[in-house]
UniProtKB/TrEMBL annotation:
InterPro entries the UniProt entry points to: Glyas_Bleomycin-R_OHBP_Dase, Glyas_Fos-R_dOase_dom, GlyoxalaseI/FosfomycinResist, VOC_core
Stretches assigned to the VOC domain: 26-147
Listed name of the protein: VOC family protein
Highest taxon, organism lineage: Bacteria
Signal peptide: 1-19
Species this chain originates from: Chitinophaga lutea
UniProt-listed PROSITE patterns: VOC (PS51819)
Length: 149
Protein backbone atom coordinates (compact mmCIF):
# COMPACT_ATOMS: atom_id res chain seq x y z
CA UNK A 1 0.00 0.00 0.00
CA UNK A 2 2.82 2.37 0.91
CA UNK A 3 4.48 1.67 -2.46
CA UNK A 4 1.20 2.35 -4.25
CA UNK A 5 0.77 5.73 -2.53
CA UNK A 6 4.38 6.66 -3.32
CA UNK A 7 3.82 5.69 -6.96
CA UNK A 8 0.72 7.93 -7.14
CA UNK A 9 2.57 10.84 -5.52
CA UNK A 10 5.50 10.39 -7.91
CA UNK A 11 3.16 10.28 -10.92
CA UNK A 12 1.41 13.46 -9.78
CA UNK A 13 4.78 15.15 -9.33
CA UNK A 14 5.83 14.20 -12.86
CA UNK A 15 2.56 15.60 -14.25
CA UNK A 16 3.06 18.89 -12.38
CA UNK A 17 6.61 19.21 -13.71
CA UNK A 18 5.39 18.51 -17.26
CA UNK A 19 2.63 21.11 -16.89
CA UNK A 20 5.14 23.71 -15.67
CA UNK A 21 7.76 23.07 -18.36
CA UNK A 22 6.00 23.09 -21.74
CA UNK A 23 7.90 21.52 -24.59
CA UNK A 24 5.80 23.11 -27.31
CA UNK A 25 6.45 26.60 -28.61
CA UNK A 26 3.93 29.31 -27.75
CA UNK A 27 3.12 32.31 -29.91
CA UNK A 28 5.00 35.37 -28.68
CA UNK A 29 4.14 37.96 -31.33
CA UNK A 30 3.07 38.73 -34.87
CA UNK A 31 4.86 41.56 -36.69
CA UNK A 32 3.35 43.65 -39.49
CA UNK A 33 5.54 45.88 -41.65
CA UNK A 34 3.58 49.10 -42.26
CA UNK A 35 3.92 52.23 -44.41
CA UNK A 36 2.39 54.76 -42.02
CA UNK A 37 2.87 53.80 -38.38
CA UNK A 38 0.40 56.42 -37.11
CA UNK A 39 -2.42 55.24 -39.42
CA UNK A 40 -1.79 51.60 -38.54
CA UNK A 41 -1.59 52.39 -34.82
CA UNK A 42 -4.86 54.32 -34.99
CA UNK A 43 -6.55 51.40 -36.78
CA UNK A 44 -5.51 48.74 -34.27
CA UNK A 45 -5.84 50.94 -31.18
CA UNK A 46 -8.93 53.02 -31.91
CA UNK A 47 -10.94 50.89 -34.33
CA UNK A 48 -10.10 47.40 -33.10
CA UNK A 49 -9.68 48.51 -29.48
CA UNK A 50 -6.30 46.91 -28.76
CA UNK A 51 -4.24 48.18 -25.83
CA UNK A 52 -0.75 49.47 -26.54
CA UNK A 53 2.08 48.17 -24.42
CA UNK A 54 5.59 49.56 -23.88
CA UNK A 55 8.09 48.77 -26.63
CA UNK A 56 11.82 48.78 -25.92
CA UNK A 57 13.10 50.70 -28.94
CA UNK A 58 11.59 54.17 -28.39
CA UNK A 59 12.61 55.11 -31.94
CA UNK A 60 9.23 56.12 -33.38
CA UNK A 61 9.26 53.08 -35.68
CA UNK A 62 7.40 50.58 -33.48
CA UNK A 63 4.02 50.19 -31.80
CA UNK A 64 3.29 47.11 -29.73
CA UNK A 65 -0.14 45.83 -28.68
CA UNK A 66 -1.27 43.16 -26.24
CA UNK A 67 -3.40 40.58 -28.07
CA UNK A 68 -3.96 38.00 -25.38
CA UNK A 69 -2.48 36.87 -22.11
CA UNK A 70 0.98 36.21 -23.58
CA UNK A 71 1.00 37.41 -27.20
CA UNK A 72 1.65 40.72 -28.90
CA UNK A 73 1.14 42.45 -32.22
CA UNK A 74 4.14 44.50 -33.35
CA UNK A 75 3.76 47.22 -35.98
CA UNK A 76 7.04 48.20 -37.62
CA UNK A 77 7.34 51.31 -39.82
CA UNK A 78 9.21 51.26 -43.13
CA UNK A 79 7.17 49.30 -45.69
CA UNK A 80 7.40 50.74 -49.21
CA UNK A 81 4.03 49.50 -50.49
CA UNK A 82 0.65 48.20 -49.36
CA UNK A 83 0.12 44.46 -49.10
CA UNK A 84 -1.74 42.71 -51.90
CA UNK A 85 -2.49 39.58 -49.93
CA UNK A 86 -5.26 37.05 -50.26
CA UNK A 87 -7.99 36.96 -47.62
CA UNK A 88 -6.87 33.43 -46.73
CA UNK A 89 -3.80 35.03 -45.15
CA UNK A 90 -5.16 37.04 -42.25
CA UNK A 91 -4.99 37.68 -38.55
CA UNK A 92 -8.11 37.11 -36.50
CA UNK A 93 -9.55 38.70 -33.38
CA UNK A 94 -12.58 37.42 -31.47
CA UNK A 95 -15.13 39.78 -29.95
CA UNK A 96 -18.14 39.07 -27.72
CA UNK A 97 -20.55 40.41 -30.38
CA UNK A 98 -19.88 40.77 -34.10
CA UNK A 99 -22.97 42.99 -34.38
CA UNK A 100 -21.65 45.42 -31.74
CA UNK A 101 -18.29 45.47 -33.52
CA UNK A 102 -20.03 46.18 -36.84
CA UNK A 103 -21.80 49.15 -35.23
CA UNK A 104 -18.33 50.47 -34.33
CA UNK A 105 -17.17 49.97 -37.94
CA UNK A 106 -20.27 51.68 -39.34
CA UNK A 107 -19.78 54.65 -37.03
CA UNK A 108 -16.18 54.97 -38.29
CA UNK A 109 -17.25 54.54 -41.93
CA UNK A 110 -15.10 51.42 -42.25
CA UNK A 111 -16.00 48.84 -44.89
CA UNK A 112 -16.17 45.12 -44.19
CA UNK A 113 -17.14 42.04 -46.16
CA UNK A 114 -18.12 38.43 -45.59
CA UNK A 115 -16.04 35.46 -46.79
CA UNK A 116 -17.73 35.57 -50.22
CA UNK A 117 -16.71 39.22 -50.61
CA UNK A 118 -20.19 40.73 -50.17
CA UNK A 119 -20.09 44.17 -48.57
CA UNK A 120 -21.73 44.67 -45.16
CA UNK A 121 -22.60 40.96 -44.81
CA UNK A 122 -21.71 38.45 -42.09
CA UNK A 123 -20.52 34.90 -42.76
CA UNK A 124 -22.05 32.22 -40.53
CA UNK A 125 -19.61 29.32 -40.34
CA UNK A 126 -20.83 25.73 -40.13
CA UNK A 127 -19.91 25.73 -36.42
CA UNK A 128 -22.14 28.76 -35.74
CA UNK A 129 -19.36 31.35 -35.51
CA UNK A 130 -20.10 34.72 -37.13
CA UNK A 131 -17.24 36.37 -38.99
CA UNK A 132 -16.41 39.43 -41.07
CA UNK A 133 -13.28 40.64 -42.86
CA UNK A 134 -11.71 44.05 -43.27
CA UNK A 135 -8.36 45.43 -44.34
CA UNK A 136 -6.06 47.57 -42.27
CA UNK A 137 -4.48 50.71 -43.81
CA UNK A 138 -1.64 48.59 -45.25
CA UNK A 139 -3.88 46.01 -46.89
CA UNK A 140 -3.43 43.25 -44.31
CA UNK A 141 -6.61 41.21 -43.94
CA UNK A 142 -8.21 41.07 -40.50
CA UNK A 143 -10.97 38.66 -39.53
CA UNK A 144 -13.24 39.52 -36.62
CA UNK A 145 -15.42 36.74 -35.24
CA UNK A 146 -17.36 35.75 -32.15
CA UNK A 147 -15.65 32.40 -31.49
CA UNK A 148 -15.52 31.56 -27.80
CA UNK A 149 -12.13 29.77 -27.98
Amino acid sequence: MKTFILLILFSCGVMVVKAQSPTRPVLNHLALYVQDLQKATTFYRDLLGLDTIPEPFHDGKHTWFAVGPASHLHLIAGAKAKQQGDRNTHICFSVPSVEAFIARLDKAGMEYINWAGEKKKITLRVDGVKQIYLQDPDGYWVEVNDARK
